[in-house]
Task: structure prediction
Amino acid sequence: MKRKLIPQAATVIAALALFVALGGTSAAVTGGTPFTTHQISGSDLADRSVPGTKLENHTVTAQQLNLNGLPTVPSATFAGDASLATTAETAQTAKTATTAGTITGTISGSQVSSAVANATSAENANTAATAGTITGTISGSQVSGAVASATNATNATNAANAASATNATNATNATNATNATNATNVDGDQLSNVSEWSGSSTDTTLVHTAAGLTLAMRCTGGNVDIDATTSTSSASLGMSDVTNAGATGFVKAEGTFNTGNTLTTTSTAPAQIDLSYEQNGEVSSGTLTVFDDAGTCAAFGVIESSG
Result:
């Protein structure tokens, strides 16, 4: 006769515990979520505890940065727009630049400061110490005395050298100029100012011209002698001496004025000497006033030479 087994309390509790344990393992294996998730906030992190290597590339943008707190960029080689730059190799728009290699845009007068000392190539340059080529138009009020050399300029108020200029107020050399108030060379002509005082009885040079003419002065016993020589051959020269409104002397050489020859005009009182010289199409001409002042002779005037 069989006996009927009755489960003990301890057996029931152990079976129940085994069932619960197996149920939890099943949930983990099948992807269940037996734990509660929690998002980490900034307050949960210690200061300066996240290194840059833990950040995704390009995830920090200007929105997350305090741009006003960033330091000044000391040098920018290429800048699309640079309002203030100490050094700008290439700048499309630069209001103020101490050194600018190439300026491709247009600079107005209000944008150019005195710091722009050198501009190699500039469309418009208001103030520049050295300007190789200026392709724009510069008015007189825009050019300061610092412009020592201007190769090509429509208007050059003050320029030591102006190869091509429509208007040049003050220029030492102006090859082609429509208007030149004060210029040593104008439209290919050389202007030579003569102003000499000497008590010597030997020649004191007054002027050398591009055409080869040389004029010299001697002071001899109350007379003023003007000696003319040439460095060429087959030249022509004429000199007239006018004293007290009357012609007192005239010397000439028609195509026979050669190197080694000397033509002399002598004035015994304050006089005016007119001269004309020609050699192979090159002409020199002018007027000199000469006088003797108690043994010191003087000569002054202007000789113009053209080729």
